[in-house]
Each structure stands twice: as C-alpha cells, then as structure tokens.
Design a protein that fits this description.
By secondary structure, the protein is mainly α. It contains 15 helices and no strands. It has 3 domains: 84 residues, no CATH class; 70 residues; 92 residues, Tetratricopeptide repeat domain (Serine Threonine Protein Phosphatase 5, Tetratricopeptide repeat).
Length: 322
Amino acid sequence: MDEEQIEGSHFAEETPGSPDTDRTHRRDRAGSSRWMRQFVIGVVVAGTLVMALEKRAALSSAVTLAQAQRQMQSGRSFQAARALEQADRQNPGDRAVRVALIEAYYRAGEPEQARKLQNQIVLTPGEEKRIQPLVEKVESTAEALQTGADLLRESQYVQALPLLQQAAKELPDSPLPHAFLAKAYGGLYVTRMKAEDLQACRAAQRRLAEIDPGLAAQIQKPLSRLEILPEVVKHTNAADEALKAGKTEAAIPELDAADRLYPNSAMVHALRAIVHAQRFEKSGSAGEKRQALEEYQTAIQLNPTRASLRPRLGKLAKDAGD
C-alpha cells in the first residue's frame, strides 16, 4: 500500500457517514444516555434520602418536644433542657424546639443559657406571657440563692436555711437550691445532732438526684458520713472529758477512733490542739506549741464555731488569737 492509500485509509476512518464512524457515534450516544439515566436516578435517590432524613429529624424533634413538655409539667425541667439541647443540635433552626428550650432553661434555673438563646428569637405574645413569669421568678430568687450560698460557705447554716428553702420553693426544678439545702441541713445536723436535720438532708438529696443525678453524686460522698456522726460524737465526747480531767494521753485513742470514722473533723482538730497545748504546759516544747496552733487554725478553717474552744488552749490562747 502506497502513501496515498495509507492516507486515504486514515481519512476514510474519520469521514462522517462511514459505517465505522456511525457505529462509534451510536456507542457514544448510548453511553451518554446510560450515564444521564444513572445521574438522574442518583439525583432522585439522593433527594429522596435527604427528604427522608429531614422528615426523620423533624419527627425526632417533634417526639423530643412532646416528651420535654411532659417532663416540664412533671418537675423534670433539667432533663427536658438536656434533651432539647440535643434536638437543637441535630435539627438546628427548629423554632418550636428553641422556644421550649428557653422555657426549660428558666425552669431549671439556667438563665444565662436562656438569655443567649432568647436573643436569637422573637417570641410571640403568647410565648412571652408563658415565659416572662419564669424570668421574673429566676431574677427575684437569684439574690436570695447567692446570699444563702455565701452564708453556707461561712458555715452559718441557721441563717442560710430560710433563704435556701425559699429558693427551692420558687425554683423547684433547679438543682442548685436543693444541693445547697442538702449541705445546709447536713451542717445543721453536724452542729445540732437533731434527727430532723438528717431527715431533711436526705430529702433534699433525693430531690436533687431526681433533677441532676451527676450533681447528686458529687455531694453524696461528703454527706454520706453523716450517718456515723453519733459514733464520732461518742468518741469526741470521751476525749473531751479526758482533757477536762487533765488526762491528756487518755484522749488520744478516742481522737484516733473518731478520726478513722470521720477524717478531717473540725472537732477532732480542735481537741488535738488542746492535747498539744496541755503537753506544752508541761514540757514547754516548741514543737508542741507549733502543733497546737496548727491544729487550732485547721479546726476554725473547717468550722469557725470551733473558735469557742480557744480559751482552753491555756497559755497559747493569746497566740492562737493573734
């Protein structure tokens, strides 16, 4: 085959209208059609999946919203808020969920979270009518709750109690008032040893566990030792009697026993301070003096009312006061 024939052969293969060219075009059109059909089907399937997912998310939000409304009505607004938070993350922009979440936040005593969300939504008059009383209740209770908490930190349990009781009454679904109440009643039981204080402490703990099990678990450990206080008091009373009788060393086993039952007790530290003070009276040891003052300072840090035992430090009473 000469050069012209070779060139003619190539030209013939590329010339439209030839049998080979027609077959190639038909194959291309068929491939394109299959690709287009697959693309359209894919778009339809994807769109159907998106719609299904959106419907599922909306249905899930509706179910969560209904459950949250029931929880708020039954005094479990804290749990309702947590469920609504998750629904809001899964289906952001659902207005009904967000309005319910604002209400749950206020009922649960979480005004800061409520205000952040409320700034993003314009409430209807009906929603305002439902939520505004909750806002006012939280705001009017906040000062009493803070004052009660401050008094609690200073171990002024009697003064803190009515403020915390009022806060728990006004915000029954909020965990903080009940946590503070449990601590206040526990402190009163330690100082007064009245059975009704222990019962009230347990009642506040039970209500807190219904609202916020996590916070209830945090305060349960220190309060769990209240049950053994009568036995602790028996040992501290025996040690105190020994010290008053001048039997310094006889107090040591009783204080050790009390310390095993109730570690870091303010009363035990105060009585140990008296032990070291009495030893200092006899020996003049600088080490005994130092330990007496350290134990006394620890005692009043744990419980300021133990300052009443300072006169019993004898010669060290003035140094302890300084």
